[in-house]
Amino acid sequence: MKKDEISMQVINPHAAGIDVGSREHFVAVGQRSEDVKSFGVYAEDLSALCDWLLDNNINSVAMESTGAYWQNLFVELIRRGLEVVLTNGKFTKNINRKKTDVLDCCWIQKMHTMGLLPSSFLPDYTTEKLRTLTRHRTNMIQQRADSIHKMAKFLKYLNFRLDVVVRDITGLTGLKIIDDICNGNLDPISLASHRHHNCRKSEEEIAKALVSNEREDYLFGLRQEYDRYQFYTSKIEECDQQIGLFLNQVIMSKEEVVDDIPDEKYFKRQNKNSLKGLDLNIVAYQYFDGVDLLAIPGVSHSTVLTLMSEIGSEGFHKFKTAQHFSSWLKLAPNNKISGGRILSNRIPQGSNRLKIALRNAANAVGNLKDSDLGKFFKKIAFKKGRQTAINATARKIAVIIWNMVTKKQAYTPTNNYLFLDQKRRIVSRMRKQIKDLGIDPDDLGFSRANRDKIAKELTSDLQSLSLR
User: How many other C-beta atoms lie within 10 A of the C-beta of residue 324?
Assistant: First the structure.
C-alpha cells in the first residue's frame, strides 16, 4: 500500500545551513553529500565560505548561536549582503537521527528552507557597542567587589576589625585607614585619626578595633588586594568616561534632539557603583526621545542603563506587542494547554541581564507603600508569595516601558506617589509660606525636628498640594 506524503511549502528556496564550530564550520546548500563543505575559522576561510555561498546562488543563511563562535562569521555574512537567521540551538534539535556535523548542517538547511526556524533578537550596531562597554564595566565591578572581600578577609586575619566600627571598609574612613596600613603604619591611635566626622564610632573605639598581630604574610596579601582594588577603580572610571563620550555622540547624531529636560530625580539616590560624570536622568531622556523612564517607581539609573545597552531605543520596535516583549524576557507564563485545560503555566527557566534588572526594580517596588505598582505587588504577594509578586511586577514594568517607548507615552499613575524626600521638600515649602504670613511655623507644629513625622502623616494632603 502506497503511503501518502505531505509536502511542505518552500519558504526559502535559496537557503543554506551552517553548523558553527570552534575550529571548523560545516555548510550545507542542499541535502546531497556534494552539497556539504567544511571551512576553517580564519578570515580567509570565512571569505571563501561567503564566496562559495554566492556561487551557489544562496541569499539566506541559518545558523545556531553557539557560544561566541558565530559572531565573526555573522559579521562577514552580513557584510557580503546575505540574509542571516540566527536561531537558538533548541529549535534545531533532530531527535530521529545520529548527531554529526554534516547531518546537523543538512538538518538546519532543510528546516530553514521550509521556514521553520525563528530568528533570535539582535540589537542594532550602536546598541551592541554600548552593550560591550557596559558589560565590560559590570565585569570590572565584580572583580573590584572580589578584591574588597579579600581585603576584608586579610584585615580579619590581621585582627583589624574595621568591619565592626565602619559600615563600609571602602568608605571615606575605611580607605584612608587601609591606605595607611599598606604604607606601614600599624599604630592604632594614628590609624583612628583618619575617622571621618560622619562616622558613628568614636576615635577611641576605632583605635581598640585596630590592634594588629602584625603578620607579614597577611600584610603582603592586603597590599596586593588594595593595589588590585585601586587598579579596577581607575579602570572603571576610564570606562565611565568612554560610555559618557559614546552616549553623547549617539545623542548628537540624532536628527532631532529633545530640548527640554526631565524633572530632577533627587529622591533616586545613586551608590558608589553608579555611572560617574554623567547625568543619566537627562541622557536617558534624550536617548529615548523624550520618554522619562526614571519616572516609573522602582526603576533606577542602573535599570535604565541596562535598557539602553541590552535592547536600545530601536529594539523595542522589533516586538509587535508588549506581550511579545514580556514573553521574550521570559516573564510571561508559558501556558501548556491540552484538552481545553491548562496543564502548566510556569514562568520559563532562563535569565538575562534585562530580566534581572527588571526583577530588581520589582523588588524595590515591593518596599513602596502607596504607589500603584506597590499596591499591585502587595496584592499578588498576599495571594501567591513574594517571588511570584516579583515576577508579576517585573512583567508589568516591562509592559509599561514598552508602551512608553513605542507609543511615546508618559507614565501616568492613578495615584501620584511621593517619596520621602519629595514630602520633605513640600513640608519645607509649607514652612516658608507660613513664615511669610508672619506666623511662627513652630507654633503650628511645623518644626524642623518633626519634619519627617509630618511628611509621613500628611501623605494624602501633601499629594493634593504637590499637584497644584
Answer: 13
| Angstrom distance (rounded) from CA 268 to CA 299 | 9
Q: What is the pTM of this model?
A: 0.82
Nearest residue to 226 (alpha-carbon basis) of 266, 268, 176, 166 = 176
User: Burial letters for 116-152: b for 16+ Cβ neighbours within 10 Å, e otherwise?
Assistant: ebeeeeebeeebeebbebbeebbebbeebeebbebbb
* Inter-CA distances, 48 with 23, 36, 44, 53, 330, Å: 15, 14, 6, 9, 39
**Inter-helix orientation angle 386-407/353-365, to 10°:** 110
Radius of gyration of the chain, Cα coordinates, nearest whole angstrom = 29
pLDDT band at 372 (very low <50, low <70, confident <90, very high): confident
Is 294:265 a contact under the CB 8 Å cutoff? Answer: yes
For residue 51, how many C-alpha atoms fall within 13 Å in the half-sphere facing its CB? 7
| 159/222 Cα distance (integer angstroms) | 12
Residues 209/162, Cβ–Cβ less than 8 Å = yes
Place of cell 523588588: 363
Residue range 102-114: average pLDDT? 92
How confident is the model over 46-83, as pLDDT tens digits? 999 999 999 999 999 999 988 888 999 999 999 999 99
Report the DSSP beta bridge partners of residue 18.
27, 63
Helix (H, G, I), strand (E, B) or coil at 245: helix
CB 270 within 8 A of CB 303: no
DSSP-assigned states of every residue in 84-143:
EEEE-GGGS--TTS---HHHHHHHHHHHHHTT--PPPP---HHHHHHHHHHHHHHHHHHH
Tell me the C-alpha to C-alpha distance, in Å, between residue 338 and each of 335, 343, 344, 349: 10, 7, 10, 21
Task: Give the C-alpha separation, 328 to 308, whole Å.
Answer: 17
The 3-state DSSP class for residue 195 equals coil
246 to each of 136, 240, 330, how far by Cα in Å?
15, 10, 30
